[in-house]
Amino acid sequence: FAPVKNLGLIILDEEHDGSYKEHSSPRYHARQVAMQRSKVNSSPLVLGSATPSIEAYYYAKNGFIDLNPLRKRAGSGSLSKVKIFQNKDDSRVIGSDLLFAIKKRIERKEQVVILLNRRGYSPFIFNKEEKEFIECKNCSTNLCYHKSGKAICHICGYAERFENIKRKLGEKNVELIGSGTQKLEEFLLEKFPGARIERLDQDATKNKGIVAEVITRLINEDLDILTGTQMIAKGLDASKVTLVGVINASTGLGLPDFRASERVFSLLTQVAGRAGRASLEGEVIIETNYAEHPVIRLAKDQDYEKFFNGEIEIRKSLYYPPFSRLIRIVTRSKSEEKSRETIQGIYEILYSKIKDFNDKGTYLLGPVDCPFYKVESNFRNHMLIKTNKQKELKEMVQSSIGEFKIPFGVYVEIDIDPVDLV
Which of 372-406 are b and which e, b meaning 16 or more Cβ less than 10 Å from the residue's Cβ? Predict the structure, then answer.
């Protein structure tokens, strides 16, 4: 959108990144905007990524856009050796193999990057008496314990004093389960008291300039261990980083979203690329509960081509992009009944229109509850349209919503080409 005159080149780096999609209205994708500007200004557009989105790579492989593969890593580095270890004890923060590898790097005055894609101290607070996890009062998601002494919802920000929870349920009935980045940092400080350790996640980077300061320290070898969430998975280029550890590598694979595998593969491959970027040999250690999962195995081999070939066959058989275009309709309301009635009403009108349209390339899925069913006290329902005639279907969707009398307090969202379905 920048009013640049004489635009000569557009570069969209890390084009696979989901943050290029705007999740509030207008729900545009920066890649599509860049492609349009490229046409209008007759400027070349470069889509750069070590793990391209399935759609972009498919179009490149089929000649719709030019494919220019880079065969070598930047600098003198080579691909790191990757090892996978099955988690044997979920109560441990780090397995013995990764712990030993960290110790060796500290002794050799080399640097370590450890990815744990979970904020906070413990992601789950368990009520032993009721045998259930404690959820946010506004959202259908678990509260996460933070070292500040608060149980926090990572969706709406609701916070409750942990002491109040223990007082209410009885201290013996409350148990913290799992590890977040705060717990990992605490564990490493105990194990390596002389090491210089920093953490980068949403909680640690609230103050302006922290990210740049920590990354500069890493590059200047003023840091021994950097831990954090997915924000440390890309863009780090430190010559002394020879070990990358990934804890709970399968986080995200269980999401009911057809792009879940792509996201996990991309994250693991990207973070693996932080090790061995110069003359020193790199090593990557992946800890997971699903060591034999195909995505984990392919990430170990850093074999994007093989991952793409398998994923594209799944997409084709299930008629997902790039073989179709998607339209997602979401209703939300503080009234559970109104949200469900609205999505059902829109579905019935739309179904009759599509039936009359008689297009064999259009399918409706749903309506069902959203995976994150309750967000900020709003109940959410959705339906998904797969089609190869998106323009016509978009008009049908808009007219169907117009024909249905939307009750007061119900909001309807239309997301064209959604990047997630949760």
Answer: ebbbeebbbbbbbbbbeebeebbebbeebbeebeb
Q: Based on the number of CB atoms within 10 Å of its own CB, is 119 exposed (0-12), middle (13-18) or buried (19 or more)?
A: buried
Lookup result for tokens 């905007």:
33
- The token duo for 132 is 């259930």
Cα dihedral 53, 58, 60, 64 in deg (nearest 10): -120
Structural domain spans, the chain: 10-48, 81-120+180-315, 124-177, 325-416
d(CA 88, CA 148): 30
Cα–Cα distances in angstroms (integers) from residue 126 to residues 92, 122, 202, in the given order:
17, 10, 24
- Topology of domain 81-120+180-315 in CATH is Rossmann fold (3.40.50)
Alpha carbons 251 and 302: distance in angstroms, whole number: 18
How is residue 114 written in tokens? 């450890």
pLDDT in tens, 383-407: 999 999 888 888 999 999 999 999 9
Distance CA 86, CA 84 (A): 7
Write out pLDDT tens, residues 298-308. Answer: 999 989 999 99
Q: Residue 396 has which token pair?
A: 């049908």
Residue 335 CA to residue 32 CA, distance in Å, equals: 36
- Are 181 and 175 a contacting pair, CB within 8 Å? no
Give the residue ranges of the chain where pLDDT is below 50.
Answer: none
Picking from 294, 103, 58, 126, the residue whose alpha carbon sits closest to that of residue 193 is 103
Q: Which pair of tokens denotes residue 354?
A: 């599509």
C-alpha pair distances (Å), 269 with each of 228, 306, 419:
16, 13, 20
Contacts for 299 with CB less than 8 Å, ≥ 6 apart: 82, 249, 264, 265, 268, 269, 272, 286, 307
Query: One-letter amino acid identity for 378?
Result: N
CATH number, span 325-416: 3.30.70.600
Strand order in the sheet with 132-133: 132-133, 124-127, 174-177
